[in-house]
Amino acid sequence: MDPLIPFVSQCAERVEQVLGASLPAEEAEPRRMHQAMRYAVLGAGKRVRPTLVYAAGLATDVPWERLDAPAAALELIHAYSLVHDDMPALDDDDLRRGRPTCHRAFDEATALLAGDALQTLAFDVLARDRHSDSATRLRMVRELAQASGSLGMVGGQALDLASEGLELDLPALENIHRHKTGALIRASVRMAALTADDLAADRATALDDYATRIGLAFQVQDDLLDVEGETEIIGKAKGADAAHDKATYPSLLGLEKAHATAERLVDEAITALEHFDDGADPLRWIARYIIDRDR
Fold it and tell me: Torsion over CA of 42, 43, 49 and 55, rounded to 10 degrees?
């Protein structure tokens, strides 16, 4: 059996419990919005970002309980971003994670508000974390705010929208995806590192190098799946990028070079961990999974 499978299952089960306890109950008013929040977060998704938090914590000897809050907060931000990204004002998608998008399952206004509430809940989860001291909580809040805001994920989304129909060169495309996709993936590793006791600067830099590269590799693979994947497997409509006239790695480089780029990024990410012991093996497994996945 692939050793990553039980590790991912363990991480997913753990963060699911934390998320379930953090989200408002379905019967709490306003019920419809709380139902939409839980629909958007629970029971679906690859949980890549929480798994990265736990894996980076394992590599730096951080107890699991210190990692629960950042793992949950990152998944809440990711979930809110998907809810908003799928709405008619942006990508207008009907399918996400193999089921109707939040605004299709509920309605546009409810989905918009649910996304807003998920974003604010992420910071509440960090602020209430009783397993980290106040200084660490503040650093994690700032890290997540920067990664998810106008200089991170949201800024990347804005750049992506502005680029539709334009011919981009590779540096411009990489700049979009370092923000849109890479910022939260990088933050997953960086926030775990913030919880570590006396982490040496060179080890923190190595982890950051790893995260930067797998963040780009993740987007390259997403672009490839949009061309080569099947809707029933990837859980969203195939060919959406072409329909929106978006620049992608396959459209810019061709399929063969796009695959080669993803392989190179993963090799560089694994090399960045060369001075870590086998406690970093889950990070190495995740790097390979990112370009081997079919959804």
Answer: 120
